[in-house]
Design goal:
The complex is a heterodimer of chains A (225) and B (294).
Chain A lengths: L1 H6 L2 H45 L2 H7 L7 H21 L13 H21 L2 H33 L4 H60 L1
Chain B lengths: L1 H12 L6 H20 L22 E2 L15 H4 L38 H7 L8 H4 L4 H39 L3 H4 L14 E2 H12 L12 E8 L5 E8 L4 H13 L11 E8 H6 L2
Helix pairs in contact in B: 8-9
Classes of the chains: A mainly alpha (225), B mainly alpha (294).
Chain lengths: 225, 294
């Protein structure tokens, strides 16, 4: 099988090289994303338990350092940070130029949470586009290599004037390895892409839910005040 | 706040997130592992099997001292029939008239495929060698009438024997066909060697192989020569099977025959298989023998 690779023409070799690159990077992304997303989900789960157990923002804020990989914990950190700043500014209204004065806390926290959600989504979805790209174009690149290889093979037949199976078969076999590599790169990439997209969507849903709940709590606190 | 925003921005733009490089390394290692796994024994290999090529004398390894057996392995039970064949060069030309229609024996050492004989025939072969007379040299001294008569008879003889031989070949072929259909795997049972083998190596005798190969390159019309010319040639092949030099130790006396031999030897200057070592062969080329080849 390796002979096929080494005997291939320069264009087919280039195609194979590109495909190997795609395969390498997409597998690296798959491994990376598996670890990142698994950790994100597990830590988010633990954080939510922690959050509902503590029932106090300052206690949660103290323990938040444990959950640095959870997007929901990051959401809470952003919202809490915003709240603290708001409180600080309200307690010390000596800075007339500050644009956070006299604003609605819920709205401020809500914006901070939305921004944090966007950031976390971007972080979670990073690299996934590469998987999508690999999944869609690797077969085409492979096909290109095959077509090129078969063109070469037919040219060889034309020059030798012999069209027996023994002459045709090795060239076609050489050419087909490009398609095989393209598919080998594309299949895991597509599977990984769909899997991770599903997980990321679940996390985004969780982040949205948490944002709403946090905002509810903040609003209740404000009304209570 | 500002610094954390910058940090996030940088992280989003960066090619390698922390931890991604390790994963890239893992991926590279896994990809390198793939060809190693491919060549490891637990991946069933799909070898492209070449169709077996059968060329009678080339099937077996060429050895210097072949053991007793058959060039093409066949059941052991057949061996006794092959062995009693006469070893010396048959010279069937000058036959007395009283003799029953002779069947010129096959030249055993060069025969690619020993043919099991039908039952009655081996007897005929066995009794034949005894009444063998002296070659034509002695005859030359007799009177010319006798010579002419003999020649005529020899020609007649030859015709008859040829007919008989053809019949026999047909019978043998039918026999061999029947035999091959009966026997499941003859190769498995018989020792590989030569009928006259005395050595201890499994394979075919080098001299038989060379003689057979030269004979395959040989073309001659039997009308170009009369009688039974015989030439002795010394050939020296190196281990790669290349002819280094050759020499006629004995000319046959028939220039056409000698020339045909020279042509055949020139064509055989490269054997299709290497020899076990550099070897020198003394080969007798006998016209009758060579024409007898089916």
């Amino acid at each position: 099988m390796l002979d096929l690779v080494f005997n291939a023409g320069p264009v087919v070799k280039l195609v194979l090289l590109i495909l190997v690159y795609f395969s390498l990077v997409s597998w690296a992304i798959i491994f990376y994303k598996v670890s990142v997303i698994q950790r994100a989900i597990a830590e988010s789960d633990r954080f939510l338990d922690f959050f509902w157990a503590k029932k106090r923002f300052d206690l949660v804020g103290q323990g938040i350092k444990e959950f640095s990989h959870s997007p929901i914990a990051n959401l809470f950190r952003e919202g809490y940070h915003e709240m603290l700043q708001f409180k600080k500014k309200n307690l010390d209204p000596t800075e007339p130029g500050d644009f956070s004065l006299k604003m609605d806390t819920t709205e401020m926290v809500g914006r901070a949470l939305r921004r944090a959600t966007t950031q976390e989504t971007q972080r979670l979805e990073k690299y996934l586009t590469f998987l999508a790209t690999t999944g869609s174009i690797a077969p085409f690149i492979g096909l290109f290599g095959t077509v090129w290889g078969i063109m070469d093979a037919f040219q060889g037949i034309g020059t030798t004037g012999s069209a027996s199976l023994a002459v045709v078969a090795p060239g076609i076999s050489e050419a087909l390895i490009a398609t095989a590599m393209g598919l080998a790169a594309a299949i895991p990439a597509v599977m990984g892409y769909n899997h991770f997209l599903n997980k990321v969507n679940i996390l985004i849903g969780e982040m949205d839910n948490f944002s709403q709940e946090l905002l509810n709590i903040v609003e209740r606190m404000e009304r209570g005040n | 706040m500002e610094s954390s925003r910058k940090q996030r921005w940088q992280q989003l733009q960066s090619v390698f997130e922390p931890g991604f490089k390790q994963m890239l390394l893992v991926s590279i290692l896994l990809h390198l592992l793939l060809p190693i796994l491919y060549y490891a024994p637990f991946f069933p290999k799909r070898e492209i099997e070449k169709p077996p090529v059968y060329r009678v004398n080339l099937v077996n390894k060429i050895v210097k001292n072949p053991q007793a057996g058959r060039p093409e392995a066949a059941p052991v039970t057949k061996k006794p029939e092959v062995k009693p064949k006469p070893k010396p060069k048959p010279k069937p030309k000058p036959k007395p008239v009283v003799k029953p229609i002779p069947i010129p024996p096959k030249p055993v050492p060069v025969k690619p495929e020993p043919k099991p004989k039908p039952e009655p025939e081996p007897k005929a072969v066995k009794e034949k060698p005894q009444p063998k007379p002296k070659p034509a040299v002695s005859k030359a001294q007799e009177n010319t009438l006798q010579q002419r008569l003999d020649q005529l008879r020899a020609a007649q003889d030859k015709k008859a024997s040829e007919q008989a031989r053809k019949d026999r070949i047909a019978a043998l072929k039918a026999d061999a066909l029947a035999e091959s259909s009966n026997i499941e795997s003859p190769v498995a049972e018989a020792p590989v060697g030569m009928a006259d083998g005395k050595g201890d190596e499994a394979g075919v005798s080098a001299i038989a192989f060379v003689q057979e190969f030269i004979q395959q390159q040989w073309s001659f019309s039997k009308y170009q020569a009369s009688g039974n010319p015989e030439a002795e040639v010394k050939l020296f092949y190196n281990a790669a099977g290349t002819l280094l030099h050759y020499k006629f130790l004995k000319q046959s006396g028939n220039s056409a025959f000698d020339e045909s031999l020279t042509r055949a030897i020139t064509k055989s200057k490269q054997l299709p298989q290497p020899l076990p070592q550099s070897m020198e062969f003394h080969i007798f080329f006998n016209l009758k023998d060579m024409l007898d080849k089916p």
